[in-house]
Amino acid sequence: MSGERLIEEVGEQHAAALAAIHAAAFAAKDAWGEGAMGSLLATPGCFALIDRRGGCALARRIGDEAELLTLAVANSVRRQGIGQGLLRAAMARAAQAGATAMFLEVSTANRAAVALYTGAGFVEVGRRRGYYFDGTDAGTDALVLRAPLSGFCLPADRRAPRPPPVIPIKRDPA
C-alpha cells in the first residue's frame, strides 16, 4: 500500500461499505445500517471518511461547529492508529469546511475512545446522565466533548494563496 491513500472521503454510494465497517466495530444492537448511513450522507454538511484497512468516520458541519457522529474501527484491525488517523482527518475536513470546533458524545464506559478523544485535544463540556441503555435502570453516561479546530487548517476561503506550480518545459534541441 505504499503511496496509496488509506483514508478517503466517500459519499452516499458507499453507505453499504460504511454499514459493514460499523457492523464489524459495534455490537449488532448498536451498529448503524445502510439506510441510516445513506440518510445521514444525504443531509447537507454531512461527510464520511473510510480507511481502507477497516475504519470509518461520519461527521457533519453546521455553521462554525462540527459534530463527529460516529467513528468505527473493525475489531480485527484495532490498535493500528486507524481511529486516530480518521479522527484527525475528520477534524481537518471539518476545519476546511469552516468549522472552528468539533463536538462528540462518547460513553463513559468506552475507555479506549475516551482516551483517543482526550489525546486529540477534546475536553468535557457536558454529561448526559443515563444516555446509553446498558440493561440497567441507570444506563451509562455520555460525555459531551469539544475540541477547537484552530490547530488544523484554515477554511478554504481563508487560506493564503499558493504560488502557481512550476512546470518544467521541455525544449526541443534545435
What does this structure look like?
This protein has about 170 residues and is α+β, with helices and mostly antiparallel strands. It has one domain: Gcn5-related N-acetyltransferase (GNAT) (Aminopeptidase). It contains 4 helices and 7 strands; from the N terminus they run E-H-H-E-E-E-H-E-H-E-E. It has helices spanning about 15-25, 35-40, 80-95, 110-120, and strands spanning about 5-10, 45-50, 55-60, 65-75, 100-105, 125-130, 140-150. The protein has a 7-stranded mixed beta sheet. Helix 1 (about 15-25) packs across helix 2. The longest helix has 15 residues, at about 80-95. The chain is globular, with a radius of gyration of 19 Å.
Distance, first to last CA: 43 Å
Total count of domains: 1
Q: In percent, how much strand structure appears in the residues?
A: 25-35%
The main β sheet shows up as: 7 strands, mixed
CATH class: Alpha Beta
The SSE string, one letter per element, is EHHEEEHEHEE
Full CATH superfamily name: Gcn5-related N-acetyltransferase (GNAT)
Name the shape in a single word: globular
Low-confidence stretches at least 5 residues in length (pLDDT < 50)?
A: 154-172
- Please report the number of helical segments: 4
What do we call the CATH topology? Aminopeptidase
What is the typical, i.e. mean, pLDDT? 83
Question: What is the number of E strands?
Answer: 7
Structural class: alpha+beta
Helix content: 10-25%
